Amino acid sequence: MTPAARVQTAIELLDSIIEAARGKGAPADRILAEWFRSHRFAGSKDRRAIRELVYAAIRACGPVPANGRAALLRLGEVDASIVPLFDGSNYGPAALEDDEQAAKGGIAPEWLEQRLAASDVTGDEAAAMLGRAPLDLRVNTLKAQRPTVELPVDAEPTAAPNGLRMATGTQVEQWAQWRDGLVEVQDTGSQLACLAVDAKPGENVIDLCAGGGGKTLALAAMMDNLGALIAADTDRGRLSRLPPRAGRAGATMIESRLLDPGREMDVLADLAGLADAVLVDAPCSGTGTWRRNPEARWRLDEAELQKLAATQAHILDLAAQLVKPGGRLVYVTCSLLDQEGAGQFDAFLTRHPTFAPHPLTLPLGTPRGHGVRLSPLSDGTDGFFIACAARA
Ligand SMILES: C[S@@+](CC[C@H](N)C(=O)[O-])C[C@H]1O[C@@H](n2cnc3c(N)ncnc32)[C@H](O)[C@@H]1O
Predict the structure, then answer these.
(1) Are residues 36 and 167 in the same domain?
(2) Which of 191, 233, 260 to mutate to test the pocket of ligand 1 (most atoms within 8 A of CB)?
(3) CATH of the domain at 174
(4) Where does residue 181 fall: left (phi above 0), alpha (psi -120 to 50 degrees), or beta otherwise?
(5) pLDDT mean over 323-332
(6) In this structure, are 358 and 370 located in the same domain?
(7) pLDDT surpasses 90 at 386
(8) Which of 38, 71, 283, 304 has the maximum number of C-beta atoms within 10 A of its C-beta?
């Protein structure tokens, strides 16, 4: 493909991605994967170039662009090689119209930039949310140890006790060490969220929003497979990914429970007031993961954020019923918005006077309200809010 043809393809893909973002359709990665599957003539160099163009354009636009051409023209404002390719050549983009407008730059749609600013996320801190994420692994201590595990590539230890960092794009899933469960892909921020739970062998621990079990597996390793570890979630599909992962990891202690949204206590009643620790890795806007999903900022609106905040409060209230006297509740969101972080946790403490903030000693992070915030700029991790409350 010529460079101009790659640009035209990126424009068409962006048209689909923008439409999907507006209609809450398929995510960008899936749209790209589908295009590559159905256009076999595009070789690996073409694919890489098109993917880079698409993601660079997504990162370069703040608000949702009008269309793919406007998005590529916005990229042209920061990359001088783009605009000359709007030359009307065969398979390339039509020549530029005199009055054609580039999409707006910035970090996110205006309302969201305002929310970030109100949470003290501005300037370089905000820009870093759209940087490139590194690839982090967690060494599974049920099967290996960080100082001795042998991997096919060089890796640097991270601030997380069992963390390793390596070049983005490393095909970890093709390694025997991944297939055999010696390592898991997990961002350092997620690893530190698990560290905050401080789960010990023999405890009763509940991962209340377990999803596919990324954090559950880390908790099982911390507990050395001893005690009780419940993985609960309302999403059957996500929860179903846990057993094969647990099998690979040798995590034999996990019991999964599928929850009915709004009636979660129906299947948790036997655990009420018994947990040493409950992890609430709540559903959130994911503003802390824009490095991986930059188009997520086009999918969020104020009503959706409000709904997420209400769900977070609901799940926190559920979690409070499960913690035993003297036990702890750890609240985590991968968001830098106070509404989902420090503010949400403050509101929880106000509603539940039997809980008091419990200080965290994590190797990274900045105090925020009664918890800690991790950020791409300051900590080189995804953005997270992590806080712990102890029940009297
Ligand atoms: C941030 S994700 C969890 C990710 C997971 N802990 C991990 O490390 O891979 C939030 C999860 O909360 C779940 N969820 C949503 N509403 C819930 C509810 N009412 N009770 C429990 N889980 C819920 C979602 O299905 C989603 O899997």
Answers:
(1) no
(2) 233
(3) 3.30.70
(4) left
(5) 98
(6) yes
(7) yes
(8) 71
- Mutational pocket test of ligand 1: of 184, 209, 239, the residue with most ligand atoms within 8 Å of the beta carbon: 209
Secondary structure element (H or E) that encloses residue 305, with its range: helix 302-322
CB 335, CB 284: distance < 8 Å: yes
Tell me the C-alpha distance between 141 and 152, whole Å: 19
pLDDT digits (tens, 9 = 90+) for 282-304: 999 999 999 999 999 999 999 99
Please state the domain count of the chain. 3
Q: Calculate mean pLDDT across residues 173-199.
A: 97
| 284 and 238 part of one domain | yes
Q: Say if residue 250 is in the same domain as residue 172.
A: no
| Same domain, residue pair 260 and 374 | yes
Indicate if ligand 1 lies below 6 Å from the C-beta of 281: yes
Per-residue pLDDT reduced to its tens digit, 53-70:
999 999 999 999 999 999
61 carries an active-site annotation: no
Domain that holds residue 272: 188-391
DSSP 259: P
Statement to judge: residues 142 and 214 lie in one domain: no
pLDDT band at 98 (very low <50, low <70, confident <90, very high): confident
Structure confidence by residue, pLDDT tens digits, 341-376: 999 999 999 999 999 999 999 999 999 999 999 999
Q: Determine the residue type at 263.
A: R
Judge if 192 and 150 occupy the same domain: no
- In this structure, the residue with its CA closest to atom 16 of ligand 1 is 234
- DSSP code string of 244-298: HHHHHHT---EEEEEPPTT-GGGGTGGGTTTEEEEEEE-----GGGTTT-GGGGG
Binding residues: 233, 260, 281
For the record, the structure tokens of 258 come out as 């599928």
Same-domain pairing of 242 and 151:
no
Q: Binding site for S-adenosyl-L-methionine: what residues are annotated?
A: 233, 260, 281
Q: Is 259 in the pocket of ligand 1 (CB under 6 A)?
A: yes
Give the rounded percent of residues in the chain with a pLDDT score beyond 70.
100
Please indicate, yes or no, if residue 331 is contained in any of the structural domains.
yes
